[in-house]
Model the fold of this input.
Amino acid sequence: MKFKKIAITTALAGLFATTGVQAEITLRHAIQGTVLDLSFAKKGGNTPAFKEFMQTGKNPYNTDKEAIEHGESLYMTGCSGCHGHEAEGKLGPGLADDYWTYPSIATDKGLFELLFGGAKGMMGPQYVNFNTDEMLKIMAWIRSIYTGKPKKAKWLK
Ligand code: HEC
Done:
C-alpha cells in the first residue's frame, strides 16, 4: 500500500516537472466542476503567456494585436463553422455579446475552462484541436470583438 502511494506521488511530481507549470489557479470543467487534466494538452502550448495565465487567471494576449490577429485565423478554422464568422451565433451561441449561457465566460479563467474542457453536445473539448497558447489567442480575439456592456466585461477588472 505504502509503495503504491509513493509511486503515485512520484508520477505526479514527474508530470508537473515535464509540463513546467507552477499553477496558482485551479482550472475546472465548466459543467462537471472536476479539475481539468492539462496532461491532455497538445504540445507547444506551454508558452510564457500561458504560464502567466496559470499564475493570474488573466489572458496576457487581450491587448496584443499580433496575438489577436493570429487568434482570428485560428477561430476561422476551428470555431466559425458553428459560431459564425463574426461570432454572431449559428449552431452554437453568439460569442460577441454579453449574454452567456455560462456566466463564468465573463472571466478569462471561465472562458479558458469552457474551451479546454468543452460544454454540452456539439461543444466538445478543444484541447483536441488547439494547444493552450492557441486557445488564449482565440480568446483574445473573442474579447476584441465584444459588443456588450463594458460593466459586464469582468475580464477587464
Ligand atoms: C461542432 C460545433 C462547435 C464547434 C466547432 C465549437 N463550438 Fe462552441 N459551442 C457549440 C455549441 C452547440 C455550444 C452550446 C453548448 C452548451 O450550451 O453547453 C457551444 C458553446 C460555446 C461557448 C459557451 C457560450 C456561452 O454562451 O456560455 C463558448 C465560449 C464557445 N462555444 C466557444 C467556442 C470556440 C472559441 C470554439 C473554437 C475553438 C468553439 N466554441 C467550437 C458548438 C461548437
Observations:
- Residues 9-15 have pLDDT under 50 and may be disordered.
- Residues 25 and 56 are 7 Å apart (CA to CA).
- The pocket of heme C is lined by residues 78-79, 81-83, 91-93, 95, 100-102, 105, 111, 114-115, 119-123, 126, 130, 138 (CB under 6 Å).
- DSSP finds six helices and no strands in the chain.
